[in-house]
């Protein structure tokens, strides 16, 4: 009977320090640390030890974090909160066209607001329009005026009136698909050029308020705010924590408050090589990929039965000659056993 010697690589997922959960599908690992830090300290720690404070970009991630959180581990029964990577920008207005090379110094800050605008009393008015007088106003992004699109060709910029009622996101998508983008108004001369095509209409331009940012620079628009949050009237609450007594719902807090915090990073793994002997009793074709895959599944089941978790991954390792399987050299093994006996 043919006796074979083979080598496999076992990759074992190792959980890091602190209570953690692993999302195998996304290849990310989340760490909830119960030691209290302010937002800046937590951000520094996550960047040094892992990747960054957590970016929550889906309900799936929220479920993982809720499953990770142990309410008994928080420092106070009255505060089940942990910092996420979301924070508030002090200057939230920015242009849809984000290419920095398009703007000269100071041009991203040009504004031509009408009197009393932007109206900060309404937190849902986060998009900008222009009237026939060339003055700007902030409005609900779901409003449906006409829009102006910009065509950018080098230093030459032209503007086109689109006589279709669209929300601001619809206008942005349309302009990006058919032109360059919604217009960025960099100076008074460009404001007058846009005004010239507006006529007697109200139109969208490219300025919008995007006051929330993720620590790692992600642009996820997913949100999980608690009722009544965010509170735009409280200017000193600029960092966001998840309240795990309320299913992880988000709320604003001053950044100098000390909270538990959540880091994330790639899944950490260790590779272990081991040699396995077996007899090919059924004379299987060991070069058949299906046979090799079936053998890996059987090995994985045996290792799981011995206590290894579901995150274990197995793969075959080729030797220097390009082969995985080798016949056992009985003479060599006999000599080795004799030396061991001596």
Description:
By secondary structure, the chain is α+β, with helices and mostly antiparallel strands. The chain has 3 domains: about 5-15 and about 270-340, no CATH class; about 20-90 and about 210-265, Roll (Mannose-Binding Protein A, Chain A), CATH 3.10.100.10; about 95-210, no CATH class. The protein is built from 6 helices and 18 strands. The protein has helices at about 40-50, 60-70, 170-180, 190-200, 290-305, 330-340; strands spanning about 5-15, 20-25, 30-35, 50-55, 80-90, 95, 125-130, 135-140, 145-155, 155-160, 205-210, 210-215, 240-245, 250-255, 260-265, 270-280, 315, 325. The strands form 3 sheets. Strands 2, 3, 4, 5, 12, 13, 14 and 15 form an 8-stranded mixed sheet that branches. Strands 6, 7, 8, 9, 10 and 11 form a 6-stranded mixed sheet that branches. Strands 1, 16, 17 and 18 form a 4-stranded antiparallel sheet that branches. The protein starts with a strand and ends with a helix. Residues about 10-20, about 20-25 and about 335-340 have low confidence and may be disordered.
